[in-house]
Amino acid sequence: MKKIISVSLTSLLILAFGAIAYAQDAPKLAGYAPGLEFKASGWIDAQTLWYRNVTGGNAGSGIYNVWGLGTSFTAGERSGDLDKKLAYWESRVRLKFDWIYGKATSGTVQFEADAGVWGNRPGGNATVVSERNTYGYVSADRAALEIKHVYFDFAAPYFGIPVPMNFRVGLQGLAVRPPVLLTTDAMAIVGTFKVDPVTIIPIFAKYVEGQNRASDDVDLWGIHANAKIDKLTVGGYGLYYNMNSYPLFNPAPTYGTQTADFWWLGLYADGRVGPVNINFDFIYDQGKVKSRLSDVRDVKYRGFATRLAVDYPWEKFNFGIIGAYGSGADTRKTAANGLAGSETLDGDESYKVGSFVVPPATEAAAAFGESLVLFSTWLNRGDSGIGNNLNYNTVCKGGLGGLWYAKVYGSAKLAPWYKVTLAGLYIGDTTKNGNTFGNARDANDALRDDKGIGWEADLINEIEIYKSLKFAIGAGYLWAGKALDLYNGVDTNYSPKNPWQITSNLTYFF
After folding, report:
1. How many domains are there within the chain?
2. pLDDT band at 61 (very low <50, low <70, confident <90, very high)
3. Among positive and negative, which fits the CA dihedral 213, 217, 220, 221?
């Protein structure tokens, strides 16, 4: 029944606005249409990563796992082998093509290709029989080009309704407060209704279809609204994920054996207040995971996160402070995978997750960009960081779950072509009866509960070589606290060497 309702509502939405769209002058179905404008844009980069005890930007990589309640001494190559230095080059290209017909309609196709490392091995990427991310292979000729986005935009005619209405349909980027919550690509219909000073954005996305004859799909329904009040933009949103197959893409026999329903509710404010600029978020998540196959206890999710950044720009300088808090799980109530029927590390049945979590498939942790070592960094497009937790199958902690931090920073535009930024952070742990990343144990063989993840210092240099060519290089060092200690699985705790990273990026824009 849910599937019938979903398909019906989506069809009515397309028909309602598709019918009035045909009232506009439409381009010819074949050949070049007079008035059609074509645009091409994109960028190509080359970046370096050199680090110790950090993490490559892939789910499950590094010495600390995705969920963060368990850890491992073993990790894959390039992914943060314990106490070893790793160094490699990467590249990415994005090509975007837009076909614009007047002010009412346009179509967009965007491609992406990666050299996951320069000098990729032949025969596909990791264990997947695919050449995705491998255009760095020595003799080239890899089938590495990927489709990133395919969508069209149209403006619905007013027909007496004085409200501008625009729609985007197809494979597109979905973003709701992307550094802290949702940033992904999906087949979706997103509207924008402008009722000054309020903008209303309804969202529907199809994450998983499953079998057409069954209610086993995964849908996102959301509403997002904001208003500009003087120099301040305030907004709020609600996102509902109806997941009739959970985890999303697990292979048999676990595929589709559980279901989940999740809500994310948030408020935010961005803009200028007096002499300072502020950026504020508060997010609450609530959900439940159930088993289809066995009579086991449901797992309930209740978590929250908040973040406040204050910037004071002064001539060629900018000074800022940031404070953020993400609720943590209780390891006596929570299993590492967060699924119904699973056990905690003490062998009890899991039933509650108090950690702040983000939706499946979101790359919010990679977009977080808050530091060079513990978090991801914008400098290498989010491709590193101990806390860079990505999980495309289930909810995960994102960039904020299970920790808090305080950050101070300052930047100076020393020349028209040169900017330098210095930052310092203290990061704490909010997981209960255990640690968010480390898994050290006490004398009673129980998980140790430490509060300090550590102090981090970062230095970033940005250089504009040409308007179309920019270079950035940064270095970060983390003085690790006890909350990053590891247990060897037998009888001993171990403190990894302090993590550090030096990373750079050279990007050509066109």
Report:
1. 1
2. low
3. positive
Write out pLDDT tens, residues 68-86.
333 333 333 334 578 889 8
DSSP 421: E
- Domain assignment of residue 356, yes or no: yes
CA dihedral 284, 290, 296, 300 (to 10 degrees): 0
**Residue 469: both structure tokens together:** 């060519």
508 class by beta-carbon count within 10 Å (0-12 exposed, 13-18 middle, 19+ buried): middle
* Strand pairing report for 452-466 and 493-494: unpaired
Q: How far apart are CA 395 and CA 336, in angstroms?
A: 12
The region of weakest confidence among 118-127, 136-145, 332-341 is 118-127
Chain segment 366-395, per-residue pLDDT in tens:
999 999 999 999 999 999 998 887 788 889
C-alpha span between 300 and 335 (Å, rounded): 12
Q: pLDDT at position 437, please?
A: 87
**69 found inside a domain:** yes
pLDDT band for position 253 (50/70/90)? low
- How does DSSP classify residue 447? B
User: Is a pLDDT exceeding 80 seen at residue 113?
Assistant: yes
CB contact set of 456 (below 8 Å; sequence gap of 6+)? 371, 372, 373, 374, 424, 425, 426, 427, 476, 477, 478, 479
Phi, psi of 247 (to 5 degrees): -60, 160
Give Cβ neighbours of residue 301 (< 8 Å, ≥ 6 apart).
262, 285, 286, 287, 288, 289, 338, 352, 353, 357, 395
Could you tell me if 220 and 362 are in contact, meaning their C-beta atoms sit under 8 angstroms apart?
no
Within a domain: 31: no
Q: Which domain range does residue 240 map to?
A: 2-26+38-509
What is the chain's mean pLDDT, rounded? 86
Q: What is the CATH number of the domain that holds 20?
A: 2.40.160.100
pLDDT at 230 over 60: yes
Domain-located, residue 426: yes
The CA distance from 507 to 510, in Å, is: 10
State the Cα–Cα distance between residues 152 and 168, nearest whole angstrom: 6
Backbone φ/ψ region at 130: left (φ over 0), alpha (ψ -120 to 50), beta: beta
Q: Which amino acid is at 268?
A: Y
| Strand extents, DSSP E, 252-357 | 258-273, 276-291, 299-314, 317-326, 352-353
In the block, tokens 């983000």 appear at 358
Q: Distance between CA 479 and CA 166 in Å, rounded?
A: 49
Q: Give the whole-angstrom CA distance, residue 234 versus residue 417.
A: 33
